Amino acid sequence: MNRILLAISMLCILAACKYTPDKAPGNQNSLLNSLEKEADSLGKSSPDIQLQHWEKRLHQSAVQKDRSANAFVHYQLAKYLIKQEPDSAAYHINLALEFSEEAPASLKFAVCNGAGIVAESQGKYYQAAYYFNESAAIVISSDSAAQKPMPKVICLLNAAQYNNKFGQHAKAIRQNKLALQLLQQMPEPSARHVFRAYSQLFTASAEEGNISADSLKANLHHLQLLAMESGDPQQQRFFCDHAGHFYLLKQQTDSAIHYYEKVKAFDQQALEAGSSSALRNLFITQSNLALLYSKSARLKSAETTLQSIRTLESAGAAQLLPDEKALALKALLAYNFASGNLHGARVAEDSLAVLNRTISRSAAVQATSEMEAIYQLQAKDRNIRSMQSAMAATDQQLKLNRLLLYTGASLALLVISWLVMLAVLHRQRRKRQEKDKALLQQQLLRTQMEPHFIFNTLSVLQSFIRFGEKDKAILYLNQFSKLLRSNLELSRQNFVPLSEELDALSNYLSLQQMRYEQGFQYVIDDGELKEQELLVPPMLIQPYVENAILHGIGASASQGNIVVKLELKNPGLLQVAIIDNGKGFPSAMPKEHRSLSGIIARERLAILAREEKNAAAVEISSGPQGTTVLLTLPVHRQF
After folding, report:
1. Does residue 300 have a pLDDT over 90?
2. What is the C-alpha separation between 220 and 259, in angstroms, rounded?
3. Given a cut of 90, is residue 523 above it in pLDDT?
4. Which CATH number applies to 448-637?
5. To bridge 70 with a disulfide, which of 89, 99, 141, 514 should be the other Cys (CB 3.0-4.6 Å)?
6. Distances (CA, A) of 64 to 93, 114, 246
7. What is the pTM of this model?
8. In angstroms, rounded to a whole number, what is the distance separating the alpha carbons of residues 583 and 579?
């Protein structure tokens, strides 16, 4: 019998020590190369066909196991969803950014450039500038990125445009010059992109202030030749605008007025043709002209132009941006001062100061909000990478332990071998439990604040700011920051005070209530349990409340109601009822409609049931009158 037990123990140890080779990097690269070839072959197919293809690819196990392939597929999905479903595009590009951390430079370039385009489409210009500069840095530092030169050119021009917009003129000059070098190396460079590069280079050089007049004049000459050769009215307008700016810098007012009057003619023609941006362009040009007329003592022309500006402002006040209105106030200030109307000049100066303060505050709020979102995503990525490193170290430790056990077991007696086997089995069980916990924590970090929720939240905040709802914006931002902090704090603990969990849930419901414009009411009935010193597992109630809002209240046209009722069944179990009056859902819901947060919540409940040895579970019942979720959670008491 002892011999049989020894043989079994040795077989178990040998099986545990079996070596499994890691997947070769070459296999991963071949999968990525295969996906790139598929993308090229699908280039002429309809967007719907391409979208269906990449959605199928996303769920294949080979793609799921390969981070670079995962990043590539998410990037392709974002590319085809950006026009139809911008929120979904933002979600996929965010995942592509996460998975492309260790991807080849060409893929990282494409993903960062795509993230810039998605941010730009949502009006998040600071995020767009950040991601365009990230992709431009890859272009500059790697010769292998984006083998085709045109994507490099467009990326550099986009980055340069935003750097010039946000005052990084020297950086914009370098990027525009590099784009011109790439264009000149092409057999048939795009004339449109060459003109854009020279145009942006002129603007950045003029704003930088330390560029010689000869250099600016050379750029202006290139622009003139390109505009004449193309015959494009838009390019001719840009040339005249740059020429007016050039002569304004040289303090040749008459020449500057001459070119700005040409720009005015182009803008008036565009306005008559129904161009969407013509009114704003004409408003800016008229403001520049009124300022020049006033400075050159042509007060009659300045007065007539200011009257035209007022007419344009009345016709398109909603289209005009604050910094464009500031140009008109500068012109009015110069006119009143030149005409001796000191009272009018003081009034215009005060209005301009107020408007400039508003512009500065709005820009600061927008920049803070957008960059905070990037910081949150980067912080979550760092946490995930840290967990992955810990899991890899755990795996290496397990392999080492198995090898040591194999060596010792070959020399040990029956009893020692039997004890070693029991120790190994116990240790492996504990390591597997720790690994399961680490995996679930990783998934929780990924889902505790979904990217589309962050982008939707920032979009709502931007809307409040745009329409001047300052109090709402401040309240919304405060509540959102509290929710972020509480989620990050709660996710680090196994059990948290019930009062903190309910406060975080109330804050989340309040945010969603503001987002849906009071489209639902909610009640949290804790039966005075909040006053008791109870500890509960964190962030298990919120996923089901989120489902009630999205799939229950969000799908209903009537006023929604959500009730969260807590009841202590016995000293060790808490029952939470989540009731909504939405449309309900079929009992046989397809798998693809099950939310990721719901799946992870069920996995956590299963682990809690094993660890706590109680009936932690969830029951869902739904009908035409609404849905009820009964959540049974283990509770501890504070001592």
Report:
1. yes
2. 13
3. yes
4. 3.30.565.10
5. 99
6. 16, 21, 55
7. 0.53
8. 12
